[in-house]
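Exercise 7.
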Amino acid sequence: MAWAMSRVLGQGHRVLMAAAATSAATTTTTTTAAAAAAAKRGRPAGILKVVPVSPALGEFLGVPEVSRTEAIKKVWAYIKQNNLQNPSNKKQIICDAKLKTIFSGKDQVGFLEVAKLMSQHFTKSS
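Solution. The predicted structure, written as C-alpha cells, is:
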C-alpha cells in the first residue's frame, strides 16, 4: 500500500509516513511511561484512597478504614449474597437489619441511592 501511495504522492510521502510512524511510537512510549510512573508512586487518590469510616460502616465491613470503591463492592456483594434485590423491581433493595444500620434505617433503597447514603459514612479529609 505504501508503494501505491508513493507512486501517487511521490517520494516525499515515504518521509512523511516514516515521521508519522516514529511519532506514534513515541506517543505510545510516553503514555506507557506516565502510567508506570503513576503506578510507581503507589499512593492512590480520590475514591481509591483508604480513609476511616463511621463505626456503623466499620462494623458492617469489619474494618475501620477502606476505600470508597471497596466499600461499595462489599455492600453490593452482601446484597447479592443475601438476595436482597426486589424480584419484581430490580432497582429496589430490600434492607435487612444489617443494611438498615448503614442506610439510615430505611426499609427499601433504590440502587442509585446506595452511594449517596454511604457517603455520610466516610470522613471528610482536609
